[in-house]
Amino acid sequence: MMIDHRISWLICVLTVAVALVWSLGSAVWAADPDWIRSLRLSLLKDKYVLLSPEVYEALEDLNGIMDKDVVLWVASMYDPDSGGFYYARSAIGRPGFAADIESTSQALGFMRSHGMFNDMPAHIRQKLITFFQSRQDPVTGYFFDPQFGSNVSNAKRSRNLYQAVGALQSLGAEPLHPLPYSPQRQISRISLADLFAWLGYQRLGDLAPYRQISMAHPVPGGGVNIPTLPEYLRSAEALGQWLESLDWVNHPWSAGHNVSSARSEITQVGLLDVVYEFIEGIQNPETGLWGPGRTLEEVSAALKLSGYFS
Question: pLDDT-based confidence at 32, cuts 50/70/90?
Fold first, then answer.
């Protein structure tokens, strides 16, 4: 269908343009709730020189899709028992499915952008706070959905972290436990017994067995001494090795997705410079993208990494 073709083409164009648009300081819509609520696309015409008539027409078509039925659909995803939102209507009431962190975070974003957030009833707000707080693991500080558990991909673990933290902040609440990168989780003093345990030994004699944990070295030049953080977030060297291990040639979108998802953690542990040096070093000088070509893979990788430059 023509509308689907135009919208697909629009996404490709906007993902490449988004970083440049923000850098030009003309992205007034992000700070203009009235514009977001009304979706009055006529405001774009004079402010965005990057929009061609074809893109503008596609946006007008998209504007026609956004009506009250969209709002009602989002509302129908709400789970009053957990206080969160489902991803799809087909999941409601089915065993193994439940409201999840990402969908609930997105629903909150929808409410904010459509001017409904400040009018949220107090009991709904509190249920949302409880929803996010109850999903934090006290041992690691990360947030996990019960239906998925903690054995999830690096990207999902990182996304759920910044989504839950951001949602709680917007709701005027805080996590119940220290976050994964919190200074409270730093190892500052080491007992002799702990040192031997770190080296792979266990306590001998009549003492209780000591649980072995991975070695977390103090790292010159950046990094943190937090054993519950993933290894690649603890030092500049480990992060560099992790970045190099991603497939930037065949799957640049996946690589960019992983790096983008970890941005808040990388920022918090003070290793942003490692990322900048790496992604600037592998950027394709001919296309300005990441990866060998100009396909949706490379464009999507640019979209993912644009967050580091905005």
Answer: very low
